[in-house]
Amino acid sequence: MIIVMKQGASPSQIQAIKEEIEGLGLSPFIEAGSERTIIGVVGDDRAVQLDHFYTLRGVEKVIPILKPYKLVSREFQPNGTQISVKGQVIGGKKIQVIAGPCAIESPDQLRMAAHAVKKAGVTIMRASAFKPRTSPYDFQGTGKEGLKWLKEIGDEEELVTETEVMDPRDVGMVGSYADILRVGARNMQNFDLLKEVGQINKPVVLKNGLASTMKEFLLAAEYIMSQGNKNVILCYRGIRSFETAIRFPLDIGMIPLLKKETHLPVIIDPSHSMGRPDIVPEASCGMIAAGADGLLVDVHCHPDEALCDGKQALQPEHFYPMMENLRKIAVAIGREL
Amino acid sequence: MIIVMKQGASPSQIQAIKEEIEGLGLSPFIEAGSERTIIGVVGDDRAVQLDHFYTLRGVEKVIPILKPYKLVSREFQPNGTQISVKGQVIGGKKIQVIAGPCAIESPDQLRMAAHAVKKAGVTIMRASAFKPRTSPYDFQGTGKEGLKWLKEIGDEEELVTETEVMDPRDVGMVGSYADILRVGARNMQNFDLLKEVGQINKPVVLKNGLASTMKEFLLAAEYIMSQGNKNVILCYRGIRSFETAIRFPLDIGMIPLLKKETHLPVIIDPSHSMGRPDIVPEASCGMIAAGADGLLVDVHCHPDEALCDGKQALQPEHFYPMMENLRKIAVAIGREL
Amino acid sequence: MIIVMKQGASPSQIQAIKEEIEGLGLSPFIEAGSERTIIGVVGDDRAVQLDHFYTLRGVEKVIPILKPYKLVSREFQPNGTQISVKGQVIGGKKIQVIAGPCAIESPDQLRMAAHAVKKAGVTIMRASAFKPRTSPYDFQGTGKEGLKWLKEIGDEEELVTETEVMDPRDVGMVGSYADILRVGARNMQNFDLLKEVGQINKPVVLKNGLASTMKEFLLAAEYIMSQGNKNVILCYRGIRSFETAIRFPLDIGMIPLLKKETHLPVIIDPSHSMGRPDIVPEASCGMIAAGADGLLVDVHCHPDEALCDGKQALQPEHFYPMMENLRKIAVAIGREL
Amino acid sequence: MIIVMKQGASPSQIQAIKEEIEGLGLSPFIEAGSERTIIGVVGDDRAVQLDHFYTLRGVEKVIPILKPYKLVSREFQPNGTQISVKGQVIGGKKIQVIAGPCAIESPDQLRMAAHAVKKAGVTIMRASAFKPRTSPYDFQGTGKEGLKWLKEIGDEEELVTETEVMDPRDVGMVGSYADILRVGARNMQNFDLLKEVGQINKPVVLKNGLASTMKEFLLAAEYIMSQGNKNVILCYRGIRSFETAIRFPLDIGMIPLLKKETHLPVIIDPSHSMGRPDIVPEASCGMIAAGADGLLVDVHCHPDEALCDGKQALQPEHFYPMMENLRKIAVAIGREL
Predict the structure, then answer these.
(1) Same domain (yes/no): C33, C182
(2) Is A190 helix (H, G, I), strand (E, B) or coil?
(3) Is B3 in contact with B17 (CB distance < 8 Å)?
């Protein structure tokens, strides 16, 4: 349910509504807009009479939210959310291509990649120190050491940094090194992790699970927002299917659909979905044309030597022309990149 | 296997190769290019020694085709196939938006739709008289009567016509009314139908099955080509998955991947894949940007009254601005529409 | 809708109901039971008032069928259908293991297999002369020649025969050689073929499509029944999924669910679903215990030399002990085999 | 790689092998059998020469393990693992039906359910205090309070208890209240949780993820075993597919396949897979006949009032006859229940 206050409603009226909501065992989320304040009410509000709120002072109207997701829904917040971090905006006119190596392997490898993506105009770098790997015998990441390199090289190159967090116990620590945290596909329904990243105030990139429906994806984002963190960025990365020629088919329709259903920024991971670099540039053009707010791209200077997912990474010489083509598409649809 | 003849190889040399191939129980497919002739060899050629052909006169080189599909593969014909029908080219620089109602319901309904799509710049109209319906109690199409209307209205409006054929016994009859035949998703592995449309010389649009892999899709096209019909247009229309918010998820990566694997034109059906008109325009922009040669779009003047799949059809007032946006994307990637 | 006539309703009363139904543009299906006659009404009956029929003479009650499938639904016919062919009953107390080679390759190969399965107690033999193959370059079956061998060897060994039909033009011909016809998974929604087999009076085994829902499967059976052929046997053969260790995962719950939804016999294909013989015996035990009325099993005396799907066929030495184990399960659940 | 020691190999010889393995950066897992000791070697052993180990004293033979999973593979340990907890054995001749309510709601609700399942012959009770729920607004479980009730009522009724753990920080605490811990489907690739449960010495039930392959499932079990905990029980609970009539299709072939691939006990969850109680009894019969070592069944005395997944729970009056039928199947295949 959303309560829209009258223009000029007083702080004490707003406070009274807030207390009323809490008295019903529900949670109020207050958005003070430039013209009027709106109050989101979340929790099991099925037993609450909407009419009751009309009797309270300062209330303009009360709108039920029919979707199972509340705070993330476009109904709750008709304007798209823009998330700012160190001067970079995600969800604005500018399309953000977040790029970098899948895994942080060494300072040299990371520095080379950082240099390469910056040269292409990238302002946010991705790179993971913690890697969720299918086998316990595969390379598990460089951990805290890797995060230190990430911070150091991000500072050197003036790049905003984005990295994965897997364990709820690590959220604070990872947040002390990186600007944006990522919850990976395998952890989309790791609810304790979602609650933990919901309690920091850093942007969180949330990837959809391999077999998650759109509704489940948005409810996972709702877990984060309902803990208080409004800075959620959805990253769609495709789903598992029977097709073997492409790693995780990525439904192009999910981009406009997510943009309709939610006010959160929507970015796409062409690298982990396609699983092969040869079709990443054309697929990426399609994603941008369909309305994505950004991409999350694996770029590696020496993919053959990569310790993780190397075979899907783009080399800089293929990444540069792709960026040029993406720019042309961005301009054609009235955006920039 | 592909045999590339020397420049200036004589007709009798080519004839000798042809006989040699047939003597081995295989089938030769001869492509007389402007500079040199190439001969495709299909059938089970595993036991044949490539070296043997090098000893024959006029042979420049012999190239094995490693893919299970031969005639449809890009290895067999590196340049993209362009299919001409009544002055319209599919697979060329111009992106073809094939549009019209899902089903032919009445002369009036078809005429209105034809008028509407022509006004938007469309030159090829889709409309089906035979409808594969899940339930025997649903509207089954207007059959031969509908095809007569299709021919009449296509002629009136000077539109090339495209329509579905379901029964191998109807191929000749349907071909006498329409310019392009379509084999639907449910019939992608109806091998007797494929063989039948392989024996006419009209263009055939082949849609992928709901649970078909790319390899199976291309082998279905191979069935048609191996019967002699070179005019195959692939239409990707998404796959079945667990997601319920979108009818048949459409993997954007399949567009560049098909273009790499095959020389055939690739068009996309945004209407039957998305299953809802609200996201068709943005999804279509993505499909064009990713390299599709065309679209197959349901347009209906009164979707609420449609006898079949009305809820997914675009109304003309939404189709016109979509065409404008598609044109901008086409220009941005160096094509036209 | 089902109209249950009063005990002792006269033929003229029944005839009057029949005409009333036809006058409404619907189709009557009359079941003359030992005690009373029931009349199924199919077609789009949404606009028809049930009450109207209560006013007609001889009517006991009128029951709406809420399922989209009518004639195949358990509501329409509460007792399970038993289908008899040459003294063998499918859908009765006896569990029918239909076994034989995937494809008919030669008289010798078929005779050996027939001998082997008969020795194990099998009374119905499967073997296909027409093979739907993914590639046009794969073995396509022995066709009409193979059917002649099938008839000859079936007669010799006194085995009922079951074989696939793919082309609507072949239905009569195939029916002249074999006792039971099969519509394969790829043709489950080949509606012209369904209509054609609906017009003969031989039993038809209908396999589910690889990506078909239960509802679509039952509506495909409804296509056959609505043409007049009541002898439909459902064969569940699993679905396509992302798993690669098993060819087509076979949901054990589909067995009791189909038995609840429909009165038709339900058999299972453990060979094409599992795609590997090593797990067929245990999986088959599970299928029987869950309530299947029979199995459709690939048995081949020399699987390594098979021209089609050899790697999934059981050899006789593994088939015999499997039959013993199935018999124990059958007894434990009060059936026989 | 597995190193089989000679009969009578001395402790110092074994110690020498152990040190050799560690010196190569690999991990030894020593199984002291009644006749001879075998040593599993895990880690990236691709660069290690098998021959090298033959030169060491006491070595009988060296066997490579070709599967990506080592400790869980049947190659590593040909005999099936039997796991004992408070006198109950999982993986032995007796089939264990683990039953109880999905969620612990109150002491009364749990006590009634405990009583009901015990009366049916159950010796291990399932019940969850921590619930992974799709929406943050759904009932999230009774937490630590619920675990206290579980311990108290388990003690009263002399039932072994099994419950879910979701957060790596809770593993020790949950283990102090319950006899068997469960990692749910959504956490199958929550690798930090797997590592944590790998370090306790309580049995762990591991459920497969909704879109996990068999290989990924076994590698998740490998994560637990490679941390030292040998008491892993695999629980297969079906996969996500396009079918909507059944919640998570459960491939019957996965039971014999898992039993071939791994020595770990395999139990099945018919309740969460089927998602509807009406087909659970027949499906369960199929699972037992196919070789499952046990079941995990939701039983609730008042399903309509359940706070979670009530609609799939069996009521005691349906659970009792199901147990009778399962017993008949168990006897038919030479087991007991």
Answers:
(1) no
(2) coil
(3) yes
Looking at the fold, whether A295 and A151 belong to one and the same domain comes out as yes
Burial class from Cβ neighbours inside 10 Å (0-12, 13-18, 19+) for residue C42 reads buried
CATH at residue A126:
3.20.20.70
In a domain, A69, yes or no: no
Structural domain tally of chain B?
A: 2
User: Chain C partners of D332 at a C-beta cutoff of 8 Å?
Assistant: 328-329, 331-332
Residues of chain B contacting A, Cβ within 8 Å = 211, 213-215, 238-239, 241-246, 249-257, 259-260, 270, 273-274, 278-279, 281-283, 285-291, 325, 328-329, 331-333
Listed residue (B218, B300, B319) closest to B264, CA to CA: B218
pLDDT (tens digit per residue) in A1-29: 888 899 889 999 999 999 989 988 888 88
Q: Is the CB of residue B292 less than 8 Å from the CB of residue B266?
A: yes
Question: Do D135 and A42 make contact, defined as CB atoms within 8 angstroms?
Answer: no
Q: Using the beta-carbon criterion (under 8 Å), do D43 and A137 form an inter-chain contact?
A: yes
- Residue C41 is part of a domain; what is its CATH number? 3.30.70.1140
Q: How many CA atoms lie within 13 A of B267 on its CB side?
A: 29
B45 in the same domain as B137: no
The whole-angstrom distance between A241's CA and the closest CA on chain C is: 5
- Do C242 and D213 meet the contact criterion of CB atoms below 8 Å apart? yes
- Determine, yes or no, domain membership for A43: yes
Which candidate, C263, C265, C237, places its Cα nearest to that of C84? C265
Model-level pTM?
0.93
CB D143 within 8 Å of CB D173? no
Residues D21 and D94 placed together within one structural domain of the fold: no
Kindly state whether residues C107 and C158 are assigned to the same domain: yes
Segment holding B117, helix H or strand E: helix B107-119
- B225 occurs within a structural domain: yes
Closest by CA to A133, choosing from D68, B203, D314, C122, is: D68
Integer Cα distance of C128 and D249 in angstroms = 29
Task: Kindly report, residue by residue over A33-65, the tens digit of the pLDDT.
Answer: 777 888 888 877 767 777 788 888 899 888 888
Domain boundary among A10, A29, A63: A63
Q: Mind listing the pLDDT tens digit for each residue in A225-235?
A: 999 999 999 99
> Same domain for A89 and A14?
no
Q: What six digits make up the tokens of A273?
A: 């979905």
| ipTM exceeding cut-off 0.90 for this assembly | yes
The alpha helices in chain C, defined as continuous H runs, are 11-23, 50-54, 107-119, 143-157, 171-177, 191-197, 214-226, 254-261, 270-274, 280-289, 316-332
Q: Do D206 and D283 lie in a common domain? A: yes
Q: Are C293 and C265 in contact (CB under 8 A)?
A: yes
Q: Identify whether B68 is part of a domain.
A: no
Find, among B230, B252, B238, B232, the residue nearest to B208 by Cα.
B238
Q: What residues of A are in contact with residue C240 (Cβ under 8 Å)?
A: 242
B24 neighbourhood in chain C, CB within 8 Å: none
Buried b / exposed e across C61-91, counting CB within 10 Å, b at 16+? ebeebebebbbbbbbbbeeebebebeebebb
Interface of B with C (CB under 8 A): 42-44, 68-70, 132-137, 166-169, 186-187, 189-192, 209-211, 215-216, 219, 222-223, 226, 239-240
Instruction: Based on the fold, state whether residues B242 and B275 are members of the same structural domain.
Output: yes
Q: Which domain, by its residues, includes C18?
A: 2-63
Report the distance separating Cα C15 and Cα D4, nearest Å: 83
The Cα A279–Cα B10 span in angstroms is: 41
